[in-house]
């Protein structure tokens, strides 16, 4: 993983992300350990412990059907997870040039 | 190339090579091989690290939102049947559109891994594939979009482009080079292929005893932009493959593999010095079994025989009828001024279909538009379609008396933007909206600029001005060669844009120079407008933006952008 996409600040919070193996779509590690297509279902981890979470999650990525597990720092001042970088916001919410592909619109909240 | 290539097919496609059964059997086997690889990946028998090089050899990337499949369009030419298949893939397996690239290929951004073997099988059924669109091999050979049609052309380079394709595909020595390797070929003295920005650039021309080639080497963009070295003139056709083999062998032997950023041949040529590189190539060339690598005229003729040739028999009044239509329709006249290119045959003209609508995404086309282009190519240009490295489409052989009818049909499909070569004809890479390598978004800047300068009269008044946008230093959007280049950079996770001025991809190849500090996204479009305003004030009669910049230097333009900040 490119360092610039995996940078975190001490004391902050992050979520864990990957791409689904079958179709490449972006997924987020949810509260129950399953993967969700919606970032607002993602479990929020303290940066203090997230490396261990990433390591453990990466070890089961084949079983989970995902690839490229890494952590994404989020803003501390929002109620739902919002990544701090433009890149990860685009991953989370969809390409800015196709609003009709907005992830939170496409993936219903009751579908993981 | 097989023995069957000696036979002329009954219905060879105009403009490109007709596959034979050996070609088709190879593609079939390749698809089945990949189907098995995908199955093993899904079962876990192959890890991602093991699978990645295999999928890349078949054009499949894992990008920001999904898998991206890049399909090869060798030397930028395809036929209506193939274009309809691309439309079908866009409609069935993607999100109803495709994106034409600066290497004359097309890519689909929302592909599922499990669908890919079926997609490749459909492509193979129309003699297409995704080979040489990724990895450290010799990539898709690019070519002049007006090849075989342009009035200024000395020699149609497409037969030699096909020979290079066959030579390079699965070449055992060159499948694992230090880095990717890009070749462009032109047959015109006016460089429309950016030959001087390629690993190898070739210009074909007639010699005293047959076809010869001028050879450039070590050009490229990326993080170390370099204008290629003129390596030699008048390379005889029969030595083309031997000499290129020697050039790539020297690179393969001496090119760096320890540092990805220093692994391209341009770094080697600069490190050795052009003269030392030339000596090594000449020594390799002299030591080769020349008979084995000789490209005999019979082979060239056999390949040429597998290209369909258009019958160019326009009525004698075709030019008059075009002139009459232009007089009667000002909008059509404007489109003809910007979107056509003179043809070598009387009564014909080449038409450029702009994929840069006002406020649109450069290079994108919907499945309906792809189908429309296929239909129009059949009706107006022998079923032949060309993709330009400027991310537009060309119908090469249009009868002048039918051009107005073509234009009307294009207008109905949203394909009649009159902006080729103007400020609206922007090259842009997919950028951060799609690409996992990007630092910043390219497309929104292109959209805002094209909307800002949408007025056709304003575009014509501004004249020849090429804006090229890359979302990262890899320079897929050719920003180094833009009259105005825009490079997206990342500053602590936010997008900024660095402007360069003075680049050119033509005979006067030059690398744009950085104007000043990078700008935030919301200031970039205004900055471009200030540059254009300064140019309009200070240009002399008929002077291009590039020439005004060269005459007056950067200070004037720097003030225009930064003095107000």
UniProtKB/TrEMBL annotation, chain A:
Protein name: DUF2849 domain-containing protein
InterPro entries assigned to the protein according to its UniProt record, in alphabetical order: DUF2849
Origin species: Gluconacetobacter johannae
Pfam families, per the entry: DUF2849
Source taxon at top rank: Bacteria
Automatic annotation (TrEMBL), chain B:
All residue ranges annotated as the Nitrite/Sulfite reductase ferredoxin-like domain in the record: 67-126, 361-411
Domain Nitrite/sulphite reductase 4Fe-4S: 134-285, 465-561
Coiled coil: none
Pfam families (UniProt xref): NIR_SIR (PF01077), NIR_SIR_ferr (PF03460)
Keywords: 4Fe-4S, Heme, Iron, Iron-sulfur, Metal-binding, Oxidoreductase
PANTHER family: BLR3264 PROTEIN, FERREDOXIN--NITRITE REDUCTASE, CHLOROPLASTIC
InterPro entries from the UniProt entry: NIR_SIR_4Fe-4S, NiRdtase/SiRdtase_haem-b_fer, Nit/Sulf_reduc_fer-like_dom_sf, NO2/SO3_Rdtase_4Fe4S_dom, NO2/SO3_Rdtase_4Fe4S_sf
Gene Ontology terms for molecular function: 4 iron, 4 sulfur cluster binding; heme binding; metal ion binding; oxidoreductase activity
Highest taxon of source: Bacteria
Segment forming the signal sequence: none
Protein name, per record: Nitrite/sulfite reductase
SUPFAM superfamilies, sorted: Nitrite and sulphite reductase 4Fe-4S domain-like, Nitrite/Sulfite reductase N-terminal domain-like
């Amino acid at each position: 993983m490119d360092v610039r996409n995996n940078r975190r600040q001490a004391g902050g919070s992050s979520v864990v992300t990957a791409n689904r193996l079958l179709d490449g779509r972006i997924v987020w590690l949810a509260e129950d350990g399953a993967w969700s297509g919606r970032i607002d279902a993602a479990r929020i981890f303290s940066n203090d412990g997230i490396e261990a979470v990433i390591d453990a999650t990466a070890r089961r990525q084949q079983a989970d059907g995902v690839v490229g597990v890494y952590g994404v720092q989020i803003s501390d001042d929002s109620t739902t997870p919002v990544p701090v970088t433009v890149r990860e916001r685009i991953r989370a919410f969809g390409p800015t040039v196709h609003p009709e592909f907005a992830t939170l619109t496409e993936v219903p909240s009751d579908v993981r | 190339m097989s023995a069957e290539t000696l036979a002329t097919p009954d219905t060879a496609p105009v403009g490109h090579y007709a596959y034979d059964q050996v070609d088709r059997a190879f593609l079939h086997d390749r698809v089945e091989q990949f189907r098995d690889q995908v199955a093993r990946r899904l079962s876990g028998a192959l890890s991602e690290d093991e699978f990645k090089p295999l999928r890349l050899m078949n054009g499949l990337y894992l990008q920001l939102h999904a898998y991206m499949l890049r399909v090869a369009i060798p030397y930028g030419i395809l036929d209506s049947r193939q274009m309809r298949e691309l439309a079908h893939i866009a409609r069935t397996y993607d999100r109803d559109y495709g994106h034409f690239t600066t290497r004359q290929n097309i890519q689909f951004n929302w592909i599922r891994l499990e669908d890919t073997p079926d997609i490749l099988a459909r492509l193979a059924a129309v003699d297409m594939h995704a080979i040489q669109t990724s990895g450290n091999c010799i990539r898709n050979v690019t070519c002049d979009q007006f090849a075989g049609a342009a009035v200024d052309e000395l020699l149609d380079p497409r037969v030699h482009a096909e020979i290079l394709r066959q030579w390079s595909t699965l070449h055992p020595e060159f499948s694992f080079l230090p880095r990717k390797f890009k070749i462009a070929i032109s047959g015109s003295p006016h460089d429309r292929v950016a030959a001087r920005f390629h690993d190898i650039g070739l210009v074909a021309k007639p010699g005293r005893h047959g076809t010869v080639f001028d050879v450039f080497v070590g050009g490229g963009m990326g993080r170390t932009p370099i204008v290629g070295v003129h390596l030699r003139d008048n390379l005889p056709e029969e030595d083309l493959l031997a000499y290129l083999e020697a050039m790539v062998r020297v690179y393969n032997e001496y090119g760096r593999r320890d540092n990805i950023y220093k692994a391209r041949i341009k770094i080697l040529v600069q490190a050795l010095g052009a003269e030392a590189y030339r000596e090594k190539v000449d020594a390799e060339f002299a030591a080769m079994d020349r008979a084995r690598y000789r490209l005999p005229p019979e082979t060239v003729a056999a390949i040429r025989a597998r290209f369909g040739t258009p019958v160019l028999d326009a009525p004698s009044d075709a030019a008059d009828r075009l002139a009459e239509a232009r007089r009667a329709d000002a909008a059509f006249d404007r489109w003809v001024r910007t979107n056509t290119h003179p043809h070598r045959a009387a009564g014909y003209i080449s038409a450029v279909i702009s994929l840069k609508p006002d406020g649109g995404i450069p290079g994108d086309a919907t499945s309906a538009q792809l189908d429309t282009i296929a239909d129009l190519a059949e009706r107006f240009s022998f079923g032949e379609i060309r993709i330009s490295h400027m991310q537009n489409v060309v119908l090469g052989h249009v009868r002048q008396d039918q051009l107005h009818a073509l234009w009307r049909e294009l207008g109905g499909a949203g394909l009649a933007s009159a902006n080729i070569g103007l400020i609206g004809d922007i090259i842009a890479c997919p950028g951060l909206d799609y690409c996992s390598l990007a630092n910043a978004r390219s497309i929104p800047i292109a959209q805002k600029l094209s909307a800002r300068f949408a007025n056709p009269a304003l575009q014509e008044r501004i004249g020849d001005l090429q804006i090229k946008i890359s979302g990262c230093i890899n320079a897929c959007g050719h920003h180094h060669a833009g009259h105005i280049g825009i490079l997206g950079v990342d500053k602590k996770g936010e997008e900024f844009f660095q402007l360069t001025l003075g680049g050119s991809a033509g005979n006067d190849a030059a690398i744009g120079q950085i104007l000043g500090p990078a700008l935030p996204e919301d200031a970039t479009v205004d900055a471009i407008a200030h540059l254009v305003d300064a140019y309009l004030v200070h240009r002399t009669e008929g002077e291009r933006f590039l020439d005004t910049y060269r005459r007056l230097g950067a200070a004037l333009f720097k003030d225009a952008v930064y003095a107000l900040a």
